[in-house]
Amino acid sequence: MALNILIEACCSIKNKTFGYIAPTYSQAKSIAVIDPMMLKRYIPELVKAKPFNESDLRQEFITGSVLEIKGADNPDSIRGVGWQGVVLEEWATMRHGRQIWEEILEPILRENGGWAIFIYTPKGKNFAYEYFERAKIDKTGDWMCSQLRASQSGLIDANELIKARESMPERLYAQEFECSFLEDATSVFHDVEGCVSGNIEPPQPGRRYVMGVDLGRTNDFSVITVIDIGTNKVVGFKRFGDCAWSLQKEHIVTMAKQYNNAHIEIDASGFSAGSVIAEDLMTHPIVEDLKICQLSVSPFKFTGQSKRTLVEKLIVTIEQKLITFPRIDELVDELKAFTYEMSDFGNIRYTAPEGLHDDCVMSLGLAVWALGSYVYAPIRKDRFIKKAIVNRKSIRSM
Fold first, then answer.
1. Helix axes 359-371, 329-337, angle to 10 degrees
2. Within 13 Å, how many C-alpha atoms sit on residue 341's CB side?
3. Is the CA virtual torsion 199, 204, 208, 209 positive or negative?
């Protein structure tokens, strides 16, 4: 709809320039140019003064008007434009969205008597939410807003909506399909602060522990997270990088032995050293302090589906406050920043924002995965006591 409005304007108005902006240059090119259902479908050949310029992402019309396509990842490329009208695609996700509108576009459009259309899926209560609320109460006539939920539009089959709702966390479904502006919606983990409690604790005799190990790649960190099965508390944490695989193995073995031979859930994705380390730990006992110790190891192979399953279990775990962890800055920051992307087919891909890490998130997720059903019903201390009493009674009666 927005592209057709731009094309119509270029065809009906002479010697004006109009713009289309996506969050990044590559997205702009992919959405507007490469997709055969977009510009190529809608611009009639007879209104083109020249073929579309794919280098500059520019279309000249026989009216003398021009349509320019740009990415918001380079705000300076937008400065100085004399646009008469502009469409901002996925405005809520633009890193410089407020700056581009308030500092660059609004002054130009006010001067030209131009217009702007903002189209986006909500991404929390950010600047896009602020303007949406402002438009709802505007009395000047400058603004208007419209909201179309998937459940109302009829554009998506009702059965597909049911499947999406069943396969996604409720909060993400409400945002992506029902246009809900949510608190902390830029992060997939809700109320991370509610799980922050306690401190790192030394291992206790008789306690059982699990470890989640995410192995670093070239520019990533390796992270070890230890959880007490009896309390669902994160009691151990180690983050390190830039070291050989042999040294990483020593870190893993040492920490596992410290925490009473904790069971290890380790990143063993294909085409990584992780699978080699997992196999090594399972098949070659490592000698420490002159004592041979066979470690308990489960390799976890990350695929698109397995990562989604792991992350969504962690989402539920945090939302229901089934675990706690100390204020470990790297972990808390990664959890708050962790986000997702929606494909054109409605599939979710969980990921860290560009330029950030998710090693701590994955390590915690692996540790929670290793907990299994104990995450919902931890082995409490009183259960150990009752079991010991029963065993004593059994011994006395023999």
1. 90
2. 10
3. positive
Extract the tokens encoding 380: 């409490």
Per-residue pLDDT of the chain (398 residues; tens, 9 = 90+): 999 999 999 999 999 999 999 998 888 888 877 888 888 889 999 999 999 998 899 999 999 999 999 999 888 889 888 899 999 999 988 888 999 999 999 999 999 999 999 999 888 778 888 899 889 888 899 999 999 999 999 999 999 999 888 877 777 788 889 988 876 555 688 888 899 999 999 999 999 999 999 987 666 789 999 999 999 999 999 998 867 777 888 888 889 999 999 999 988 775 455 555 555 555 433 323 223 457 888 888 888 889 989 998 999 899 889 999 999 989 998 888 788 776 655 577 788 776 678 999 999 999 999 999 888 877 655 444 444 344 433 333 33
Q: Are residues 104 and 201 in the same domain?
A: no
Residue that is written with structure tokens 């994955």 in the block: 362
Query: Are the beta carbons of 73 and 59 closer than 8 angstroms?
Result: no
Structure tokens at 99: 């700056």
Which residue segment(s) compose the domain that 324 sits in? 194-381
pTM over 0.90: no
Domain shared by 233 and 374, yes or no: yes
Q: Do the domain assignments include residue 320?
A: yes
* 161 occurs within a structural domain: no
- Tokens for 209? 């522990």
